[in-house]
Amino acid sequence: MSAVLCHVYGVIASTARLPDGLTGRLARPVRRVEADGLAVLVSDVEEDARVRRADLLAHAHLLEAVAAETTVVPVRFGVIVPDDDTVRSEFLVNQRDHLLGLLQAFDGCVQVTVHATYDEEAALREVLRRDPDLAAFRASVDPADQAAQIRLGEAVGSALATLREDAEHTVVEWLRPYALAASINDVRGAYDVASVALLVRREDRARVDAAVGDLDRQVAGQMSLRYVGPQPPYAFLDHVELQEESWA
Fold first, then answer.
1. What is the pLDDT of residues 122-147, one digit of tens each?
2. Residue 78 in this model has a pLDDT that exceeds 50
3. Which phi and psi angles does 146 have, rounded to 5°?
4. Domains located in the chain, CATH noted
5. Can you say where in the cell this protein is located (predicted)?
6. What's the CA gap between 95 and 89, in Å, rounded?
Protein backbone atom coordinates (compact mmCIF):
# COMPACT_ATOMS: atom_id res chain seq x y z
CA MET A 1 0.00 0.00 0.00
CA SER A 2 1.40 3.38 -1.05
CA ALA A 3 2.29 5.88 1.69
CA VAL A 4 0.33 9.14 1.86
CA LEU A 5 2.53 12.25 1.70
CA CYS A 6 1.99 16.02 1.81
CA HIS A 7 2.10 18.09 -1.37
CA VAL A 8 3.05 21.68 -0.44
CA TYR A 9 1.53 24.68 -2.25
CA GLY A 10 2.45 27.79 -0.34
CA VAL A 11 2.50 29.71 2.93
CA ILE A 12 0.01 32.25 4.26
CA ALA A 13 -0.65 34.01 7.54
CA SER A 14 -2.62 31.76 9.87
CA THR A 15 -5.31 34.46 10.17
CA ALA A 16 -5.80 34.69 6.39
CA ARG A 17 -9.16 33.76 4.92
CA LEU A 18 -9.28 31.35 2.01
CA PRO A 19 -11.89 30.69 -0.66
CA ASP A 20 -14.27 27.88 0.21
CA GLY A 21 -13.83 24.44 -1.30
CA LEU A 22 -10.20 24.69 -2.35
CA THR A 23 -8.86 21.56 -4.00
CA GLY A 24 -5.41 20.72 -5.25
CA ARG A 25 -3.82 17.76 -7.00
CA LEU A 26 -6.21 14.91 -7.80
CA ALA A 27 -9.04 17.18 -6.62
CA ARG A 28 -8.01 16.54 -3.02
CA PRO A 29 -9.09 19.08 -0.37
CA VAL A 30 -6.46 21.55 0.74
CA ARG A 31 -5.77 21.97 4.44
CA ARG A 32 -3.57 24.11 6.68
CA VAL A 33 -0.64 23.03 8.79
CA GLU A 34 -0.28 25.85 11.33
CA ALA A 35 2.13 27.13 13.97
CA ASP A 36 2.95 30.52 15.47
CA GLY A 37 1.09 32.73 13.03
CA LEU A 38 1.91 30.89 9.81
CA ALA A 39 0.03 28.26 7.84
CA VAL A 40 1.32 25.96 5.12
CA LEU A 41 -1.21 24.86 2.51
CA VAL A 42 -0.97 21.14 1.73
CA SER A 43 -2.99 18.27 0.35
CA ASP A 44 -2.53 14.52 0.55
CA VAL A 45 -0.95 12.63 -2.32
CA GLU A 46 0.11 9.02 -2.66
CA GLU A 47 3.84 8.38 -2.82
CA ASP A 48 3.57 6.61 -6.16
CA ALA A 49 1.18 9.11 -7.78
CA ARG A 50 2.22 9.97 -11.34
CA VAL A 51 2.82 13.63 -12.15
CA ARG A 52 0.55 14.81 -14.94
CA ARG A 53 0.00 18.15 -16.64
CA ALA A 54 -3.27 18.38 -14.72
CA ASP A 55 -1.27 18.31 -11.47
CA LEU A 56 0.85 21.27 -12.56
CA LEU A 57 -2.27 23.20 -13.50
CA ALA A 58 -3.99 22.31 -10.24
CA HIS A 59 -1.00 23.61 -8.29
CA ALA A 60 -0.95 26.90 -10.23
CA HIS A 61 -4.72 27.41 -10.18
CA LEU A 62 -4.90 26.85 -6.44
CA LEU A 63 -2.21 29.46 -5.81
CA GLU A 64 -3.96 31.92 -8.11
CA ALA A 65 -7.24 31.42 -6.24
CA VAL A 66 -5.48 32.02 -2.93
CA ALA A 67 -3.60 35.08 -4.27
CA ALA A 68 -6.91 36.65 -5.28
CA GLU A 69 -7.94 36.64 -1.62
CA THR A 70 -4.77 36.99 0.46
CA THR A 71 -0.98 37.21 0.37
CA VAL A 72 0.69 33.89 -0.34
CA VAL A 73 4.34 32.86 -0.67
CA PRO A 74 4.27 30.17 -3.37
CA VAL A 75 6.24 26.95 -3.20
CA ARG A 76 7.48 25.50 -6.47
CA PHE A 77 5.64 22.49 -7.82
CA GLY A 78 6.95 19.13 -6.70
CA VAL A 79 7.79 19.80 -3.04
CA ILE A 80 6.58 16.67 -1.24
CA VAL A 81 7.24 15.97 2.44
CA PRO A 82 6.43 12.89 4.52
CA ASP A 83 3.96 14.30 7.05
CA ASP A 84 2.61 17.33 8.91
CA ASP A 85 5.42 17.24 11.46
CA THR A 86 7.96 17.59 8.67
CA VAL A 87 5.96 20.47 7.20
CA ARG A 88 6.13 22.24 10.56
CA SER A 89 9.85 21.71 11.02
CA GLU A 90 10.89 22.52 7.45
CA PHE A 91 8.69 25.57 6.91
CA LEU A 92 7.33 26.86 10.20
CA VAL A 93 10.54 26.47 12.20
CA ASN A 94 13.53 26.44 9.85
CA GLN A 95 12.19 29.09 7.44
CA ARG A 96 9.95 31.03 9.80
CA ASP A 97 11.76 34.39 9.75
CA HIS A 98 12.27 34.31 6.00
CA LEU A 99 8.64 33.48 5.30
CA LEU A 100 7.36 36.12 7.70
CA GLY A 101 9.56 38.66 5.94
CA LEU A 102 8.19 37.73 2.53
CA LEU A 103 4.59 37.86 3.72
CA GLN A 104 5.20 41.31 5.14
CA ALA A 105 7.00 42.51 2.01
CA PHE A 106 4.17 41.42 -0.28
CA ASP A 107 1.28 42.23 2.02
CA GLY A 108 -1.69 43.39 -0.06
CA CYS A 109 0.07 42.75 -3.38
CA VAL A 110 -0.38 40.36 -6.29
CA GLN A 111 1.41 39.71 -9.54
CA VAL A 112 -0.21 40.09 -12.93
CA THR A 113 1.55 39.15 -16.16
CA VAL A 114 1.11 40.54 -19.66
CA HIS A 115 2.35 38.57 -22.67
CA ALA A 116 2.47 40.43 -26.00
CA THR A 117 2.88 38.81 -29.41
CA TYR A 118 3.22 40.55 -32.76
CA ASP A 119 1.08 39.44 -35.67
CA GLU A 120 3.56 38.04 -38.20
CA GLU A 121 2.23 39.91 -41.21
CA ALA A 122 1.80 43.13 -39.24
CA ALA A 123 5.37 42.89 -37.95
CA LEU A 124 6.77 42.43 -41.46
CA ARG A 125 4.71 45.33 -42.80
CA GLU A 126 5.94 47.54 -39.99
CA VAL A 127 9.65 46.82 -40.46
CA LEU A 128 9.33 47.45 -44.20
CA ARG A 129 7.43 50.69 -43.56
CA ARG A 130 10.13 51.86 -41.18
CA ASP A 131 12.99 51.05 -43.54
CA PRO A 132 12.34 51.92 -47.22
CA ASP A 133 15.81 50.65 -48.16
CA LEU A 134 14.97 47.23 -46.71
CA ALA A 135 11.66 47.24 -48.57
CA ALA A 136 13.45 48.07 -51.82
CA PHE A 137 16.06 45.37 -51.21
CA ARG A 138 13.34 42.81 -50.53
CA ALA A 139 11.54 43.75 -53.75
CA SER A 140 14.72 43.46 -55.79
CA VAL A 141 16.05 40.14 -54.50
CA ASP A 142 16.09 37.32 -57.03
CA PRO A 143 14.49 34.21 -55.43
CA ALA A 144 17.23 32.14 -57.06
CA ASP A 145 20.04 34.20 -55.49
CA GLN A 146 20.71 32.22 -52.30
CA ALA A 147 23.34 34.63 -50.97
CA ALA A 148 20.99 37.57 -51.38
CA GLN A 149 18.19 35.62 -49.72
CA ILE A 150 20.45 34.99 -46.73
CA ARG A 151 21.37 38.69 -46.49
CA LEU A 152 17.68 39.61 -46.70
CA GLY A 153 16.79 37.16 -43.94
CA GLU A 154 19.52 38.58 -41.70
CA ALA A 155 18.37 42.15 -42.37
CA VAL A 156 14.74 41.32 -41.66
CA GLY A 157 15.76 39.46 -38.49
CA SER A 158 17.70 42.48 -37.25
CA ALA A 159 14.80 44.80 -38.03
CA LEU A 160 12.39 42.50 -36.19
CA ALA A 161 14.69 42.52 -33.14
CA THR A 162 14.57 46.32 -33.09
CA LEU A 163 10.81 46.26 -33.52
CA ARG A 164 10.55 43.83 -30.58
CA GLU A 165 12.62 46.15 -28.37
CA ASP A 166 10.44 49.13 -29.26
CA ALA A 167 7.24 47.18 -28.68
CA GLU A 168 8.51 45.86 -25.34
CA HIS A 169 9.28 49.44 -24.31
CA THR A 170 5.74 50.46 -25.26
CA VAL A 171 4.17 47.69 -23.17
CA VAL A 172 6.37 48.34 -20.13
CA GLU A 173 6.02 52.11 -20.14
CA TRP A 174 2.25 51.90 -20.60
CA LEU A 175 1.82 49.67 -17.57
CA ARG A 176 4.66 50.84 -15.30
CA PRO A 177 2.62 53.68 -13.69
CA TYR A 178 0.21 51.10 -12.26
CA ALA A 179 2.84 48.86 -10.71
CA LEU A 180 5.02 48.88 -7.61
CA ALA A 181 7.64 46.91 -9.55
CA ALA A 182 8.06 45.34 -12.97
CA SER A 183 10.05 42.31 -14.11
CA ILE A 184 10.74 41.65 -17.78
CA ASN A 185 10.94 37.98 -18.67
CA ASP A 186 12.76 36.50 -21.66
CA VAL A 187 10.69 35.75 -24.75
CA ARG A 188 11.33 32.85 -27.08
CA GLY A 189 9.27 33.04 -30.26
CA ALA A 190 10.36 35.17 -33.22
CA TYR A 191 7.24 37.30 -32.89
CA ASP A 192 6.90 37.30 -29.10
CA VAL A 193 7.28 40.91 -28.03
CA ALA A 194 7.27 41.00 -24.25
CA SER A 195 6.43 39.09 -21.12
CA VAL A 196 6.08 41.59 -18.29
CA ALA A 197 5.28 40.70 -14.69
CA LEU A 198 3.86 43.53 -12.59
CA LEU A 199 3.62 43.73 -8.84
CA VAL A 200 0.42 45.63 -8.04
CA ARG A 201 -1.74 46.36 -5.04
CA ARG A 202 -4.70 44.04 -4.84
CA GLU A 203 -6.95 47.08 -4.36
CA ASP A 204 -5.65 48.55 -7.66
CA ARG A 205 -6.57 45.55 -9.78
CA ALA A 206 -9.50 47.31 -11.44
CA ARG A 207 -7.22 50.15 -12.59
CA VAL A 208 -4.64 47.69 -13.88
CA ASP A 209 -7.31 45.68 -15.70
CA ALA A 210 -8.54 48.87 -17.36
CA ALA A 211 -5.02 49.91 -18.35
CA VAL A 212 -4.36 46.52 -19.97
CA GLY A 213 -7.68 46.80 -21.79
CA ASP A 214 -6.74 50.26 -23.07
CA LEU A 215 -3.36 48.96 -24.24
CA ASP A 216 -5.02 46.02 -25.97
CA ARG A 217 -7.19 48.43 -27.94
CA GLN A 218 -4.20 50.68 -28.67
CA VAL A 219 -2.16 47.88 -30.26
CA ALA A 220 -5.04 46.01 -31.93
CA GLY A 221 -4.10 44.88 -35.41
CA GLN A 222 -0.40 44.81 -34.54
CA MET A 223 -0.07 42.84 -31.33
CA SER A 224 -2.21 40.49 -29.30
CA LEU A 225 -2.08 40.52 -25.51
CA ARG A 226 -2.58 37.70 -23.04
CA TYR A 227 -3.29 38.87 -19.49
CA VAL A 228 -2.80 36.48 -16.56
CA GLY A 229 -3.58 37.11 -12.91
CA PRO A 230 -3.89 37.54 -10.09
CA GLN A 231 -0.87 35.38 -9.27
CA PRO A 232 1.46 35.03 -6.32
CA PRO A 233 4.55 37.28 -6.66
CA TYR A 234 6.63 34.62 -8.46
CA ALA A 235 8.85 37.08 -10.34
CA PHE A 236 9.75 39.15 -7.29
CA LEU A 237 10.58 36.64 -4.58
CA ASP A 238 14.32 36.83 -5.20
CA HIS A 239 14.44 40.63 -5.27
CA VAL A 240 13.08 41.53 -1.86
CA GLU A 241 15.38 43.16 0.67
CA LEU A 242 13.82 41.76 3.81
CA GLN A 243 15.58 44.20 6.11
CA GLU A 244 13.80 47.06 4.37
CA GLU A 245 10.15 48.01 4.35
CA SER A 246 7.69 46.20 2.13
CA TRP A 247 7.12 47.08 -1.54
CA ALA A 248 3.98 48.91 -0.48
1. 888 888 888 888 788 787 877 887 88
2. yes
3. -65, -40
4. 4-105 (no CATH), 110-239 (3.30.70)
5. Gas vesicle
6. 9
Rounded CA separation 114/107 (Å) = 22
Q: How far apart are CA 65 and CA 71, in angstroms?
A: 11
Contacts of 103 (CB under 8 A, 6+ apart): 11, 12, 13, 38, 71, 73
Signed CA dihedral, 186, 71, 77, 101: sign only: positive
Task: Tell me the residue ranges of DSSP E strands in 14-108.
Answer: 31-35, 38-46, 73-74, 80-81
The whole-model pTM stands at 0.78
Tell me which DSSP letter residue 40 carries.
E
Give how far Cα 179 sits from Cα of 176, 218, 219, Å.
5, 19, 20
The DSSP H or E segment spanning 216 is helix 205-218
**Are 223 and 167 a contacting pair, CB within 8 Å?**
yes
Peptide bond into 230 cis (omega under 30): yes
Tell me the pLDDT of the chain averaged across its residues: 85
